[in-house]
Design goal:
mainly alpha
Length: 250
Amino acid sequence: MELNSAQWAIAISGALLVGLGKGGLPGAGNITIWLYALVFGSKQSVGLLLPVLICADMVAVLVYRKHAEWVYIKKLFPLAAIGVVVGFFIFDRMSSAQMNRVIGVVLLGMTVLHFVRKGLVSRRGASTRDPIPHTWWFVSATGLVAGVATMVANAAGPVAGFYFMSVRLPKIAFIGTSAWFFLCINLFKMPFQIAADNVSLVSLKMSLTLGVFAALGAVIAPHLVKLIPQKLFESLVWAVIVFAALKMIV
């Protein structure tokens, strides 16, 4: 697997964005899904990106390891694991062109979920308890969608985040719970990506190299958050995601 200078620059930038996203800049890592699909191809990019994500997850877990609400992880993880298995059989039967469209649709769905989540944030001051997020069908649907999305496109972030936001986790608990959940689900997903021939010794070597930059991004993200206007950054990130998704679908 040989890359030219421009491709290496894109790959490293994507890894840094993954780390920035895990470290507190929402939406940053989602751009990497598109960047890696352009450089490595739709299917191959999913397997190559997975170890990069795990490297960033480990840093996030180290920082927020004491702030996870395990009761919600235990509810969501089993259904997400089933979704990973379902996604494995879907993934194995799709062409690169079809995978491009799937990733594009998932990216658009992620954007919609992002703004739904923002609407939920504005309602967090309400004192009434919303019973829907605690129902079996809500947890089941969210978990299954998250599992399929993470298997076919490494794109479960907003789906799981939607659930954690719905149960009104406090900010730090939200970050810590998300960090632990994604580390667990990404480790669970690894054997399936290997079985799909998307992870090899060659790709793993490149992934771990890029993982260093992902870890670096997760470390420096809190400092950058203070310097960049959050509202402007989010607007730019999601505008790029919408453009990328439409481009991949069309």
